[in-house]
Amino acid sequence: MNTLFAENLRKLREAKGFSQTQLGNQLFVNHSTVARWENGTRLPDAAMIPRLAACLGVDANTLFRLAAESDESPNVIMVDDSRIILSDGLAVLEEVMPNATVTGFIWPQEAIDYAKANRVALAILDIELGTASGLELCRTLLEINPRTKVVFLTAYPDYSLEAWKTEASGFLVKPLTAENVREELKKLRYPFQAGGAEA
Question: What is the model's pTM?
Fold first, then answer.
């Protein structure tokens, strides 16, 4: 359940003196939709959040942040130009984060397009992506969503100093292992709920 968003939405609605029905009428949704948002079983979509924020008199980024922090099925991406490393890495990420939607990309532009259409909670990026740069991809992803947590993945530890200049959240050396991923998740700048049993 998305309790963080739900509890804050209820408090904001009550502070404005709205009933669920009154808020629903302003948003042109049924009061049962508002009820589901407030009981944590559903989140409003990205198009609805700015309208909701306007009705409640708050900054839309506040609601986006609450939705991101309370998302129990986060979108996780991995970008690596090696199909073998990508395939092995995705298997590790799915083991560590069983509740996440884990998606892999060979091409940086595909990852960018995905990030524009989906709220990415965690991005694991190879630093060298053929002719492209994982450092530049990191900057682009953070422009799309500053709260995306970025962890760099590389076979070359010497890159770590340059990687930290991008405001990345972490750094891993290949190959990915479940143990290393779990340890890195504990160090991330923003809280991240991996889900599943801890090893």
Answer: 0.61
